[in-house]
């Protein structure tokens, strides 16, 4: 979908994920992270390589950039894009979004903040987990327009001044990931878990919810991380990483 | 997902006015609605965002010793509210057994009640037959795959189940649903809130068009000391119930004899399932597995299973016995 809309600057959205017209930062698919600096990033490199490969295969198609044919045949959406201000990692971003655009798509597609991952896009895998007003939520089931006025923190906002958070450091020390795709969601989720457990919130693993004290057991941590799936199965190391931070801080 | 208009309501009266527009639906946490919209199962023209209405996100004490839970209180906040944990541990347990931490942070108490009764034939538009999604189109589940489906109160038209854990606890606690509508406020007993499918399974609840939930009221409860929510599921966490039981007991001074009992079954019907005779058979008797088994048999009386969900009849009864035993042991 990204590649197809290259070169188009119309506000025709085929689906929320395809909306690129943002007044703040609107990278086209092939700009990638380039606009954030001259540094070569993995994503930028992959996108350039993809572009080159596509160019080699279909030079005609890219010689004259034009709207993707599918976009031209679709009627414009009923509801026009509207101004939305999102506060992300302490910074206000002024965007123009259709009401149906999810927070996840606004982050990834409009703002090119690709740290937050799209897994199932249906609230089942937790890869898209971000913090809204300090609480973990699924950004795939949050409309961006509804998050206006909230404080949003993504995985990009967990480190401060180049210093990884204790949890991020623990994930590295405990080898708490393999492919890393679920890791941003795991990190945001676990960050909130630490706050929740320090506040003595109960879980389904808590023997008696009438007791205020909560034990930092593996069962508690596993239950509280059940909204984040890891296909690589790094669960034991994720649990030990979280436990190590809890032990050092409580 | 099709395009939508978006309105942000500032108060209840504003929300009710906005909801009069064609194709409008309220949105709270959105965890069920947006999921169904992404699958083209729900196709509202307009969403009325009620999450910015003040005053509906609090839990307050009622004069009779009960609690009023605002409709916009998030599931996680309700589960962890000090008074809910102390006085209604059954509700805390049920809420914490549902969904994931992220979803519980988003989902509201009112929205939990209004999540759709559903099954895979409803949520996947690739299936041609679903009376709930397309009235009159038939039921794909009836002669299809029905492992998760209803054994009680279902109809030829629909055998889906309501997956809410919270509702099962609220049924046992005899909650009331406070509703506002164009013609004022009214109260619906939780037992009457969800409806059986009959010939119109597309209608899940007795809430009328244009009405919205403003609060859930809990009466004072004698079941705080002896309560247990048991959820039997395929995974240890984050899965719908195959069957679930909300059990609350009030014991006599001897600590053995049952003074009052409440049992609600989840995962078996379009609504939480209660049977007065099942609760009555426990009263005035010492709690025992044998008695509990009698109660369990009364609860599932008239159950009708299909090939894949036949196991639920026995599983539900065993779950009732275990939940009552656990409730009796807790103190």
Account of the protein in words:
The complex is a heterodimer of chains A (250) and B (331). Chain A is α+β, with helices and mostly antiparallel strands. Chain A folds into 2 domains: 3-157, Beta-grasp domain (Ubiquitin-like (UB roll), Roll); 166-249, Orthogonal Bundle (DNA polymerase, domain 1), CATH 1.10.150. Helix content of chain A is 32%, strand content 10%. Chain A has helices spanning 42-57, 59-63, 69-73, 103-110, 166-173, 183-198, 218-224, 235-249, and strands at residues 82-88, 91-97, 129-132, 135-138, 151-153. The model of chain A is unreliable at 1-38 and 58-77 (pLDDT under 50). Chain B has helices at 12-18, 33-38, 75-80, 82-87, 89-97, 101-106, 109-114, 120-123, 166-172, 190-193, 276-280, 289-299, 311-329, and strands at 5-8, 24-27, 46-49, 59-61, 67-70, 176-181, 184-189, 212-218, 226-232, 243-251, 258-266. In chain B, the strands form 3 sheets. Chain B has a 5-stranded antiparallel β-sheet. In chain B, α5 runs antiparallel to α9 (166-172) and α12 (289-299) packs across α13 (311-329). The longest helix of chain B is centred in the last third of the chain and has 19 residues, at 311-329. The mean pLDDT of chain B is 97. Chains A and B meet through β4, α6 and α7 of A and α2, α3, α5 and α6 of B.
The CATH architecture assignment of the domain at 226-329 in chain B turns out to be 2-Layer Sandwich
What class, by secondary structure content of chain B? alpha+beta
CATH class assignment of the domain at 226-329 in chain B: Alpha Beta
CATH topology of the domain at 226-329 in chain B: Enolase-like, domain 1
Label the structural class of chain A: alpha+beta
Low-confidence stretches of chain B: none
Total helices of chain A: the number is 8
Q: What general outline of chain B do the C-alpha atoms trace?
A: globular
Attribute tags:
heterodimer, A: 250 residues, alpha+beta, Ubiquitin-like (UB roll), DNA polymerase, domain 1, 2 domains, five-stranded mixed β-sheet, 32% helix, 10% strand, disordered N terminus, B: 331 residues, Uridine Diphospho-n-acetylenolpyruvylglucosamine Reductase, domain 2, Enolase-like, domain 1, five-stranded antiparallel β-sheet, three-stranded parallel β-sheet, 13 helices, globular
């Amino acid at each position: 979908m990204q590649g197809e809309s290259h070169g188009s600057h119309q506000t025709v959205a085929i689906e929320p994920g395809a909306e690129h017209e943002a007044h703040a930062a609107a990278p086209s698919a092939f700009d990638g992270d380039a606009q954030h600096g001259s540094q070569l990033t993995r994503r930028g490199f992959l996108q350039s390589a993809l572009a080159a490969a596509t160019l080699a295969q279909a030079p005609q198609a890219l010689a004259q950039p034009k709207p993707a044919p599918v976009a031209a045949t679709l009627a414009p959406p009923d509801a026009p894009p509207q101004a939305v201000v999102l506060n992300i990692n302490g910074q206000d971003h002024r965007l123009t979004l259709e009401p149906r655009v999810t927070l996840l798509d606004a982050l990834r597609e409009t703002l090119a903040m690709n740290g937050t991952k799209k897994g199932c896009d249906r609230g089942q895998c937790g890869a898209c987990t971000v913090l809204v007003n300090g609480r973990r939520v699924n950004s795939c089931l949050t409309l961006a327009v509804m998050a206006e006025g909230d404080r949003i923190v993504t995985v990009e906002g967990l480190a401060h001044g180049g210093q990884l958070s204790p949890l991020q450091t623990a994930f590295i020390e405990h080898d708490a990931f393999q492919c890393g795709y679920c890791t941003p969601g795991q990190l945001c989720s676990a960050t909130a878990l630490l706050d929740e457990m320090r506040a003595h919130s109960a879980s389904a693993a808590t023997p008696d919810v009438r007791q205020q004290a909560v034990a930092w057991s593996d069962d508690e941590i596993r239950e509280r991380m059940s909204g984040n799936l890891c296909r690589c199965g790094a669960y034991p190391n994720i649990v030990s990483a979280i436990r190590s931070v809890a032990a050092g801080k409580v | 997902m099709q395009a939508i208009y978006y309105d942000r309501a500032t108060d209840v009266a504003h929300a009710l006015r906005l909801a009069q527009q064609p194709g409008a639906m309220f949105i709270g946490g959105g965890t069920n609605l947006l999921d169904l919209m992404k699958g083209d199962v729900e196709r509202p023209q307009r969403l009325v965002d009620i999450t910015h209405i003040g005053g509906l996100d609090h839990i307050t004490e009622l004069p009779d010793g009960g609690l009023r839970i605002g409709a916009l209180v998030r599931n996680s906040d309700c589960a962890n509210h000090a008074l809910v944990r102390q006085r209604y541990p059954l509700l805390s347990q049920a809420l914490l057994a549902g969904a994931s931490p992220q979803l519980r942070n988003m989902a509201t108490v009112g929205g939990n009640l209004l999540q759709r009764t559903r099954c895979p034939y409803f949520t996947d538009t690739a299936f041609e037959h679903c009376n709930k999604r397309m009235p009159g189109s038939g039921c794909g589940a009836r002669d299809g795959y029905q492992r998760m489906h209803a054994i009680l109160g279902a109809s030829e038209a629909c055998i889906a189940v309501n997956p809410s854990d919270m509702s099962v606890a609220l049924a046992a606690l005899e909650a009331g649903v406070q509703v506002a509508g164009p013609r004022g406020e009214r109260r619906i007993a939780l037992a009457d809130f969800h409806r059986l499918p009959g010939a119109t399974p597309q209608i899940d609840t007795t809430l009328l068009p244009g009405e919205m939930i403003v609060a859930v009221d809990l009466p004072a409860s004698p079941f705080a000391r002896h309560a247990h929510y048991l959820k039997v599921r395929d995974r240890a966490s984050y899965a719908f119930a195959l069957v679930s039981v909300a059990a609350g007991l009030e014991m006599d001074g001897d600590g053995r004899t049952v003074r009052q009992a409440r049992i609600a079954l989840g995962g078996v019907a379009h609504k939480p399932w209660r049977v007065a005779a099942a609760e009555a058979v426990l009263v005035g008797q010492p709690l025992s597995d044998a008695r509990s088994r009698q109660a369990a048999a009364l609860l599932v009386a008239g159950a009708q299973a299909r090939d894949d969900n036949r196991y639920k009849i026995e599983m539900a009864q065993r779950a009732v016995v275990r939940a009552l035993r656990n409730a009796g042991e807790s103190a």
